[in-house]
Design brief:
The protein is built from ten helices and ten strands. The protein is α/β, with parallel strands linked by helices. A five-stranded parallel sheet has the order 2-1-5-9-10, sandwiched between helices. A hairpin with a 2-residue loop joins strand 3 and strand 4. Helix 2 packs across helix 3, helix 2 packs parallel to helix 4 and helix 4 crosses helix 5.
Length: 337
Amino acid sequence: MNLITPVHISKPSFSINHAQRILMLGSCFVDEIGAKLQADKFNCLVNPFGVLYNPASIAALLLRSISEREYDAQSPEILSADGLFHSWMHHSQFSSSNQQELLDKLNSTLLLVSDWICNADVLIVTFGTSYIYRLKENGMLVSNCHKQPDSLFTRERLSAYDIADAWKPLLQLLQSVNPHLHVIFTVSPIRHKRDGLHENQLSKAELLLAINQITSSLPSGRSGGGFLFYFPSYEILLDELRDYRFYAADMVHPSPLAVDYIYEKFQDCFIDREEQRLSALCREVQAALEHKPFHPEAEAYQQFIQQTIQKINYIKQKCPDINLDTELSQCNTRLNK
């Protein structure tokens, strides 16, 4: 008896391993999956600009990073409000009471992402919504309203054609800058209830149609080949996990169990068994170090730490790219403490 409707996922022509660099941009769902990958010791840069919900903002910041066009005090993206300096295009984590400090953060991140674009093996992009905001004053795209009055902004929904027209040349540019880059698209399963449930569905539909247009018109990975691939995280939650027990208390965000399930599907799709085994060993090492013994000086615990060190050395032997220096240092500190 089958009590779910499983989502079929084609195997891509590429896989992800611990030696690769993974750049992840998009909605807060990227943070969830990115945290899982980082815990498994994959080399990830996760949402360096902060959370970005719409395709236009992600595209704009990627383009700016490729061109390395830095921000200065005259940049229209910079605003001063409530005693702080902000960027209309960045998360409030960048905001500062000192303008130069803000500019330094913006530009160092810009150059960091530029380097990752040129050298990354995989770019994972998660679209959250097709709704965007613009400043009424000059029509400039805004990624973060920083709690400014609604009267300053206009709101519109991008069409699938708008999104695809922006992303097709961007992807061609990315491929010319970094020919070995693979791009994975996904749509966040998190519903934007504030937009209204019907409006949220329309928004997600535009995102899904846009990705379909992009992957159909460029060398795509829908059937396993090419440098583009679509991973159906949205469909997995809505169809395969079609039950409110897989949602958090707000009935909007996926529960930790649902995130674990989707991540498991992601691993099965992109990460081979040997890499998954190394990830599991990394989790065992971290779990061992989270254990707080009552008697750290006891012989049994000292042997336990020695075994953990052996496990770390085994992982490093199998894959020198996995960085467990912090964990090894913690183990050495606990020996004969």
